[in-house]
Design a protein that fits this description.
The structure is a homodimer of 251-residue chains. Chain A is an alpha/beta fold and 251 residues long. The first copy, chain A, is built from seven helices and eight strands. The two termini of chain A are 23 Å apart. Chains A and B meet through helix 4, helix 5 and helix 7 of A and helix 4, helix 5 and helix 7 of B.
């Protein structure tokens, strides 16, 4: 992991805070097809470590659930507000208010509502999340539930919750540097961390990026898993990033 | 449309070039649920204008096709290379070489291979494409077909083709400015234009952004459609953007 994504720690001699780990609820939204992949190991070690701390951990295993990514009229049960002109955002907003969203959406919203910390565990696909996880964001984070107008960014409805992206890349860390072919890794984080998580009010923790596991040795991959497990031991002490323009693009 | 996304024109008194419009092939990858939406109108006017120019226009209407967004083992017909450990990138690369990708992928690859220009028409969902379109990118643009190592960015396998993002936003142009809450619109284009299209070798034309149609008047929406139709009249004369760091984030 690059030094620049090292998390900030809260002061060690602090009083016990309400967000300390025992009793905390964690949701892991997991998007990998292969349980024995590095993503699978990172998810498993997070479940183990956080459970051991006394947290309640729930995993949404999107491929195993065959989670629907497409945003369609099927997401609204019962009658549409305007059957002659389908507007997904308007219809799902109204359906949320009327409690008539499809059950796969409401089940995820319930998990999210209860969570203190949400971990997104995924391999980077095209500088972003795999479509199955994009569909989770498109469908679960609907207006009325996750945000409204007013009610976005620092006033987003999921404020008070923590979120962290834990992802693997195909390229190496140097390829994702300012002078690398892929540009700084922070650039591709903007739509996800700022445009999605911060927009909904989350406090975003520094990302956990496991660079290039397929080019790494077995020992190095084990180091990536161990590093994540180690970080999770003190995850509740971390300060969120300042999720605004300078963090991503400099001054 | 913001001034800053105005396309550059080639010199008007040029000789006739091989990319002039008659006989050109255009693929429109379209992701909206409602035919009568602004996205639907923008797609329709592009079909009409480009057909009128003598182009052959093909539309992939992803919602109407119920296009599968999830990247799974079903994308490979026949035997997996390693059934005991599923690696999507490795398996689809090998399946591409062995011509054993699923037919919905190969049909899109054929359309793409034949196209001189690809237009992506979609509403912005979470600073990115809707999941159904993300799935098209995840599944269709596989290694071996769209890129390889070496064979990315300027050497990507789709080089020589043009691509353009035509998108609608929820927010206004001022919200997508450097000082706006959503940051400059160019920031969210980075993963799509650079990390995906440029990575595969496309020459990227300036985006066509229709800002905030739901907050606009009917007349303003008609203006957005007319503006797109007008631009398409001379689309073959446009120079691609310089798709690298400074275009997105400044010097």
């Amino acid at each position: 992991m690059s030094d620049s994504v090292q998390p900030h720690r809260r002061q060690p001699n602090r009083l016990r805070r309400p967000w300390d780990s025992p009793g905390k609820k964690v949701l892991i939204v997991y998007a990998h097809q292969e349980p024995r992949s590095l993503n699978g190991s990172l998810k498993d070690v997070a479940v183990a470590e956080l459970s051991q701390q006394g947290c309640t951990v729930t995993v949404s295993d999107l491929y195993a659930m065959n989670f629907e990514p497409r945003a369609t009229g099927k997401d609204i049960t019962g009658t549409l507000s305007n059957p002659g002109f389908f507007n997904y955002g308007v219809e799902t907003h109204k359906a949320y208010e009327k409690r008539s969203l499809s059950s796969d959406i409401t089940e995820e919203q319930k998990k999210l509502q209860e969570a203190d910390l949400v971990i997104f565990q995924f391999p980077l696909y095209w500088f972003s999340v795999p479509a199955v996880l994009k569909g989770w964001m498109d469908r679960v984070l609907c207006q009325g539930f996750a945000f409204d107008f007013p009610g976005s960014y620092d006033d987003g409805f999921l404020k008070g919750k923590l979120a962290i992206l834990s992802l693997t890349t195909g390229g190496t860390a140097s390829m994702y540097s300012k002078t690398g072919v892929n540009g700084d890794f922070r650039y591709f984080l903007w739509p996800l961390q700022h445009g999605t998580l911060h927009f909904c009010g989350f406090n975003v923790l520094a990302p956990q990026i496991s660079f290039g596991p397929e080019m790494a040795s077995e020992e190095e991959r084990k180091g990536m898993v161990a590093s994540w497990a180690q970080r999770l031991k003190t995850i509740w002490e971390e300060e969120p990033i300042q999720c605004s323009h300078p963090w991503y693009f400099g001054q």
